Amino acid sequence: MANALQNVIAQSLECPVCLNTFTDPKILSCSHTYCKACLDNLLECHGNDQMLRCPVCRAETQVPNREVSKLPASQALKSLIEDMKSQHQFCTNCKSEDKPQAVAYCRDCGKYLCIPCQNAHSMWQDFISHEVLAMSEIVSGKVSVRRYRKCRKHPKEDEEWFCSDCRRFACFKCVVMEHTNEGHRVSEAAVYESSHVKSIEDLKSKSDKKRSCFQKYVDFIDEQKDHVSNVQKQCTDDIQKAFEESVQQLTKKKEILIGEVKGMSEGVEKELDEMKKSAQEHITHLTTIADVVTNKTKIPLDTDALAAHDTLCQDLQEALKQADPDYKQPIQSSRRGKSVSFKRNVGMKEEALGKIVIAVAKTIALPTKDSMDAMVSTPDCKMAVGCCTGGVEIFSADGRHQQKVFEDVKICGVGFLSDNRYVLLDCSNNITLYTLDYTKLNVMFETLSNDEGECLCLTVDGDDQIYVSYSEAEKIQVFSPAGGKATREIPCDGYIPWQITNYNDYLISESDEIRLIDKQGVVKYQFTSEDYLTAAVSLENTILIATVKHDVGLVSIDEYTNKLKHVQNLVTDYKIEKSEKRRWYTLQQYRSGEIAFCTPDRLYIFH
């Protein structure tokens, strides 16, 4: 009888949350008691809130400064727990009243065994495979023992049944007397335990997936921070290099510039850190409550424990309802940080390293939608945009539309000779020369027909040689401004020269990659990317390459040497309005320094 009472008391000393014997028990204002560590975990699940909700009755308790240690302790429980620890477990197999102390426990038999009973147990052939635990392992907490609670109405009976409607464990006699009416769903306790464990495992799986989702979001934010940090580092490196090549008087200017980069970047990084913190708090919330709920070592047995676990399961279900992270916010924040760049003074005698710039573009909608087919800088420092629907639109460096000329010509390519005469390539493969006052000259060029090789682009070199690229024929023809037949042809082996640009003694050919080829067609250098590429020659005689991520509508512009080695980034992931009909882009630089990037619908001028 004493041993049965001891088991009942031991079961009453279990925390309803962790299902282990109370450790540092704390009392809430509703009089329910929990381990301090369990209350710390529950408080953590509610973020910065100082209100703690009881899992059993859901009453709220104020926790000043979130210090659970300052809640009142249950001294009576502490003393009782200590007294129970000092008590020995007696053999439950012996029939005598004066039972000896147990030294082992058989999981299969569900009985504590003294030394003689253990010896007899080990000799029985049917018991050899039973799992026997030493009492030292049980007392130390290394292993736990499944105990069936004794029925309070029938103390000799184990509560081996469970009523789902009453949410109670019951013995067989109670089931017969109280749980046989309609509306009572009774099952074996072991079956309920198995079902309960499975539902917990399902919750754990969903929690892991949701946690993984938010972890990917955190990783993405880290990646965006890295991009911003890399831009800051690149700017700082460029500034440092320029400084080392200058005199000591530039020290003050250097520190100012680095401070500007840091100031611009830190604001963005702070925003990303706040987004990351919010996501990590949700991960912590999911982890903490999931770990508490999914404790598989024990199953809640009494009403309080069941209520606590039901509440915690509901809390976890609510946490899982939170929407997946929105990647637009870190993308928008990081774009501001990635737009920062350092513009170094090159070839100037000013006592300055350069300046920090943020890529700012003026956007101009082309008068005719989905019309751009070519673009070139004019001799009078303007930009001419040729349209396949007819005409050349002229824009100033500040984005103002100046005029429209050659309205009756469907433009495929535009160029200028050294005497400023216009060279136009129309969509029927015809080359025509015009004077500055737009008078057509009587010069004929024998180009290929559309059946022989559809024209793509036109460029003019420093010797007034006119180059025309063909898609079907996969070659480039060279013409004299005097007209007539092509003076020679340049083969394009294995690629289509979608766009061509003159560059010193070379041509820049754009197709699936940027190729720097000599005038005989030999590829000297090439640059590859998975995204769309277009190139132009800068005022400093370097090469500008625009990389377009068409699917997401982003453009980056970088500067390269005459060997296609990277010099510096000028524009990073600038948002553009992508055309739904054509993937056709072109790049040029105004003679006043502005960079023009054109889509089929819009002209972007970067200052």
TrEMBL record:
GO molecular function annotations of the record: ubiquitin protein ligase activity; zinc ion binding
GO cellular component: nucleoplasm
Record keywords, A-Z: Metal-binding, Phosphoprotein, Zinc, Zinc-finger
Location of the RING-type domain: 15-58
InterPro entries linked: 6-blade_b-propeller_TolB-like, Quino_amine_DH_bsu, TRIM45/56/19-like, Znf-RING_euk, Znf_B-box, Znf_RING, Znf_RING/FYVE/PHD, Znf_RING_CS
Top-level taxon of origin: Eukaryota
Zinc keyword on record: yes
Domain B box-type: 86-135, 146-189
PANTHER family, alphabetized: BONUS, ISOFORM C-RELATED, MEIOTIC P26, ISOFORM F
Protein name: Uncharacterized protein
Taxonomic source organism: Strongylocentrotus purpuratus (Purple sea urchin)
